[in-house]
Amino acid sequence: MSSYILRRMVLLIPVLIGVAIIVFSMVRLLPGDPAVAMAGVHATPEYIAQVRANLGLDEPIHVQFGVFIRRLIRGDLGISTRTNRPAVVEIWPRFLNTLSLTFISLIIASFFGILVGVISATRPYSLLDNVTMVFSLFGVAAPVFWLGLILMLIFSVRLGWLPSSGMGTPQHFVLPAVTLAAHSTALIARMTRSSMLEVLNMDYIVTARSKGLMERVVVVKHALRNALIPIVTILGLRFGMLLGGAVLTETVFSWPGVGRLMVDSILARDYPVVQGSVLLLALLFVLINLFVDILYAFLDPQIQYG
Amino acid sequence: MHFFRSKAFRQLKKNRLAIAGIIFILALFVIAALAPYIAPYNPYQTDFFRTLEGPSRQHLLGTDDLGRDVLSRIIHGARISITIGFISVAIGLAVGVPIGAISGYYGGKIDILVQRLVDIMMAFPGMLLAIIIVSVMGVGLVNAMIAVGIVSIPTYIRLVRGSVLSIKNNEFVEAAKALGVRESKIIFKHVLPHCLAPIIVQSSLQVGAAILWAAGLGFLGLGAQAPIPEWGAMLSQGRGYIRTAHHVTTYPGLAIMLTVLGFNLFGDGLRDALDPKMSRD
């Protein structure tokens, strides 16, 4: 087990280096002078020269990469060209906002997805099962930004129940989190249903039932525990989808998250902030996937990881 | 044709949802092909006396903030969305399939290198990777298409590599080797045809995903730019008027959802028919 975790972490090293190379290359692949890109189009020649020296742009490319990594380790992502403040200071609070939105959505999606999936599986082809199926088909196909606008139209413009944008109170979380969770809820429900149906036909479930156990105990204690294993594996991937969807959801609800910051920074050519946001989001995704892989190894006693 | 007499096709015909998907996709193709003839108005024709009008007899789905006919713009948008779906899938196929096949067939160092590169690409959530690519290449419809295509490459590599791995140790491959058939011919003529089923299924689902992602980029302002009638960009322009004229956002979104639904239903049906092992339900 510990050797599996160790091997999994060793495999992380090339990925992290790769992510760093991609983020490093972003600015250098842009047409034109990377120093101008980093300093901003309105920067003075002196400042551009300073940025050039700072990034080591006259040095060979591997030296530049070394400089980039050393600055990263110190937490130095450069200076935002829009606000002239360190990019880290711009990004970090927004990153935390994205994190809270994404985690709440993941919890909503897991809870409702598994609940609905289990109920559907215990009553296959019932009315409830069919309704769930139709909802999940639409839930997967609906663009998240459109769903957000429709929910906003119904619950804040028409009914006036919930705030339409910004953050602050718990009510502000409801619409963005539900919007973001919809797609994942639908997929998790479908996944849970098929996984549960498979498990419920197994011999040990028949045994459990014939022992006279209550149906609820059989479903929850015996079946769900085993059905959860494949579901956990997709949670990591779901998290990536949620981070991608968060960019869109944040735009719809004016949520001050890192996704929106990144898009605004792209449009304003504020590359230090773009680089920092990309780096943090990718790092988070990689770590979550590591966590899910380890969790999977714990959950599945059948698989020995050598 | 062979396919129409196959068991898979009979299976597919029995799946009512898949048939609904096919009918919708065909309808979409017809609409896209005939767009200039069936659209009641020119999608770029502005009318400043009739802005943000609700649905009426003259404008079945109303007009947008510049007085353009929403229905006509959605009809022309079908062309754009279909193009996005197919071009980006073509990019994913053209790059991902050969790399995946070579990686799986030869194994060894090439395979390790390819797998690490795939790991790195997959370290970014799909939408984020698309945004990164657009931010480097510049915003616009064509770049958004390319970005979405590139994002799908690792999925194809993984898929094809896995299929090739399960096929390459079969006797007919050994036989071809023993006969001295060129390796490139073995890969493309003998091994890959057996991997077609999962590739076709993935491509059908990928068309839907690509349309969704490109619409997302359009909505963020990183994809199609005004005045192109791309559905995502239309939604983005209309969202400022959600309080007064929601039809400007509602209908383009509906178009996206139904299109993606059509490709998903078709893809799910194909998967059940072609490859029962892959079935999720």
From TrEMBL, chain B:
Q: Which residues form the ABC transmembrane type-1 domain?
A: 78-267
* Family matches, as SUPFAM superfamilies: MetI-like (SSF161098)
Q: Spell out the InterPro entries in the cross-references.
A: BP-dependent_transpt_permease, MetI-like, MetI-like_sf, OppC_N
CDD domains in the record, alphabetically?
Answer: TM_PBP2
UniProt entry keywords in alphabetical sequence: Cell membrane, Membrane, Transmembrane, Transmembrane helix, Transport
Which cellular component terms (GO) are annotated to the entry?
plasma membrane
From the UniProt record, give one GO term of the biological process aspect.
transmembrane transport
Locate the transmembrane regions by residue number.
17-39, 80-105, 117-136, 142-160, 207-228, 248-270
Subcellular location as annotated: Cell membrane
Task: Quote any Pfam family the record assigns.
Answer: BPD_transp_1
**Membrane-topology descriptor:** Multi-pass membrane protein
Q: What protein family is recorded?
A: Belongs to the binding-protein-dependent transport system permease family.
This one is known as ABC transporter permease
